[in-house]
Amino acid sequence: KKGTSSTSGMSTSVRTSRLLAHRAEAVVPERAEAIERAFLDRDFETFAEITMRDSNQFHATCLDTYPPIFYMNDISRSVVRIVHAYNEWAGEARAAYTFDAGPNAVLYTLDKYAEELGALMLKFYPAMEGDDDYVSNPSYMDKIKRYEIDDGLVRAAEATGREPQSGDVKKVYFTRSGPGPQSLGLEEAIIDPKTGLNTYRKP
Fold it and tell me: Could you give the percent of the chain with pLDDT greater than 70?
């Protein structure tokens, strides 16, 4: 459980953080345009850098808040270090992290590196013994358990100071981007267009 809720934290930041005001006025609009271009151009390198820089700056505004707000914890920061070590070892951005108002990491990667990144995370954030549901996708779990990580990558991750410790991460969710907005027919709707009421019924 986090010590400061997102709503109260933002309210305090708005009142006390000059960095937040600068971020809203000078940084976010430019970054929003840049990351949209990167997404449309399928430029993962740029997407990754902007995503991580923006996450870092968001948490910098939390520290600039008075009194400061701490959403990330030691495990969060270890994930940050390992992602940067991974990218430096690869000589390119193969993964990106972002953290919202909490300690949980969201990691982005490309399909071709999904097993490598998953295996790296599983090695340094292993499941508790007997936890068969640690990774949400059993097929993906089987693949990353069998994946052989490059020794150089292991050494690069070890150099961050992280030692494998089960229990530090409670659950890993593996998912992919969806197809985007879809136009559905009325037969698939769960809202009555005339009344606006929910028409969903459990099967």
Answer: 99
